[in-house]
Amino acid sequence: MRQIYLDHNATTPVDKEVLEAMLPHYREAFGNPSSAHARGRAARVCLDLAREQVAALIGAHPAEITFTSGGTESDNLAITGTARALKDKGTHIITSRVEHPAVLNTCEELRKEGFTIAYVPVDSYGRIDCAALAGMITDDTTLITLQHGNSEVGTLQPIEEIGELARARGVLFHTDAVQTVGKIAVDTQSLPVDMLSLSAHKMYGPKGVGALYIRRGTPPLAPLISGGGQEKKRRGGTENVPGIVGLGKAAEIAQSRLESDRLHVSELRNGLRQRIESRIPSVQFYGHPEFNLPNTLYLGFAGVEGQTLMIHLDIAGIFVSTGTACSSGSILPSGVLGAMAVPENEMIQTIRISLGRGNRPEEMERAVDALEKAVLEIRSKTGFSAGLAPK
Ligand SMILES: Cc1ncc(COP(=O)(O)O)c(C=O)c1O
Description:
Blueprint: E1 4-5, H1 16-22, H2 38-57, E2 65-68, H3 71-85, E3 92-96, H4 101-112, E4 116-120, H5 130-136, E5 141-145, H6 159-168, E6 172-176, E7 195-199, E8 210-214, H7 241-279, E9 283-286, E10 296-301, H8 306-315, E11 318-319, H9 335-339, H10 344-347, E12 350-354, H11 361-382
Parallel strand pairs: 1-11, 3-4, 3-5, 5-6, 6-7
Antiparallel strand pairs: 2-8, 7-8, 9-10, 10-12
This protein binds pyridoxal-5'-phosphate (PLP).
Pyridoxal-5'-phosphate (PLP) binds near residues 75 and 199.
């Protein structure tokens, strides 16, 4: 049985070309970029190239890219680094309840340090209420941190508007773009963002490497990792050269196929949604109908627990997820759906399907067959009759 991977928001397979670019850096090209000799200098050249590749993908200057160990560290560095650096100016930070745990838990840690965290409400699609945000900014606010794309329901945030609001009030704006970079165009030249997090493993690069874009002119962040002064003293420690080379290559590939990848996954996603709607009754879709990640479908079937459905599909060799990857394993209802005011009985019925560049139309056919079979089976066991409201 051929397996079908439909969980690309959790992680993506490493592209063959990316792996090929990385391998020499584990072998003969193993130099430390801080070494002054030829082998060290060669590694430095590769870091510089990767920095250019990442910068090019998001319309940035290479000097604005700081390499990190991934999206989580980028979020931590942007948020904690800003909060601590500017704490004499103010201690008020604005975020939302639909953020990834990398942002939510970082803000929670800052709250314990004495910072005040305010949460902007979202609508039923999970989109930020900008009018509410405007009223929440105070003279004490130093940072707004709001995501670009939601990893669960796929809703995109109005980051242009949010950034303009922040700028008008002299507040720094960080966006977690881990789910959007590589999937849709992200251009820091036109977007009013000061800091932006991205991660390699969401765009066919390796795990454990990412970057933080920091706009030139942004006040210096307080580093989280002190060490030998790497990354312009923003992040100490010998650089993960193979990983960074992989990130650079993944960024270059993503840039060259951004539009074709976007079209490919959105066509598959739209077709999948239509087939599901026409074949399986009592299905509900979540997330914004217009402003959404092109590859993501978040849905729930009345009378069918998401966890049970995920297991049925897993047995059939089809991999989807319930909730974010980082919280899977726990069956706590999703905080994102809570913020969207989704009723609790619906929350536990949801699954996420997230497509990638390797998915094929025939896989969508098989996925719908498997979904239909699993939903029918589960409903027959629980005595649910489609068309009736779930208990
Ligand atoms: C929106 C978002 N932010 C941050 C992260 C964390 O990134 P990483 O796994 O590279 O630490 C993820 C990963 O799931 C994510 O989806």
